[in-house]
Every structure is written in structure tokens, then in C-alpha cells.
Fold:
Amino acid sequence: MHPNFRKKQVIQLSCKFCDLCVCKRGMKAVLLADTAVQLFSTDAPSQGRVSPIGKSYSTKTCKCRICDIACTTCGNVVGYQVIVPCRPCLDSCNNGHLFIFQSSAIYAQERINISGNEVMRWDSLPELPDDICEAEDDDFWEIECCR
Structure:
């Protein structure tokens, strides 16, 4: 990760439609092709919480190949995954994250560090895969009860 991003806050991201935590390793970000667009990004969404849907596509603003991702609980689209980044995006100053979440589909909450007194920063984030939350038994029963 580029040093400019190491001091950024870690954000927990939840689906706005059903409140499922889809990622606890989020970062505030902007769209590289249009920096006026506010987003969230991650290097790894929480296991089993989002899933790719539909075919991959490119946008008019760049040649990256992307695929929409949806919340696995409610099925709503919450963002997209960059499948193949284009050269201009790779060459720009970026955080290396390939999962992008739309601010209109996500609730964001600052993640507190292990001591419980400060917001966690990316330079103190636990390594993968230790930091990906998996469905706990309580989550399973809450999801099943809602079906």
C-alpha cells in the first residue's frame, strides 16, 4: 500500500438495506476517474457477505473491467469489484483496493482499535486472513429468522 494511505482511518461497512456488516476493513476513497465521487474501498470484504453478480463490464471513464457485487443477505447491489484494472488506474496514486462500495448503499462506522480508545488506522490493521469476519452463530440465526 502506498504510504499516503497508511494513516487513513479503518471503516466498518454495513449494507444500508439490511444492516449486514459486509466489511470491517474499509477506507474512505474517491473514484479515480472522477474524484468528486465519494466511495469506500477494501482489500478484502468479509467472507461470504458480498458476491459478484452479472457479467463484467467497462465504464466510459476508464477501461477497467468491473463486476457488480451484491449483499448476500438481501441481494441489493452495494458496489463493484475491479476484475482487471486498466493501465491509467494502475499508474495513478491508489490504495491497491479492488473492492469498491457505493456510499449510497453503505453505512460507514469508524473502527476502534484494540485498546478501545482511538480510531484504528491502516498501519495498525491486523493482517489477512486474521481480520476477515466470518458469520458467527448469532448472525446465522438472525439471518435465518428473517427469511
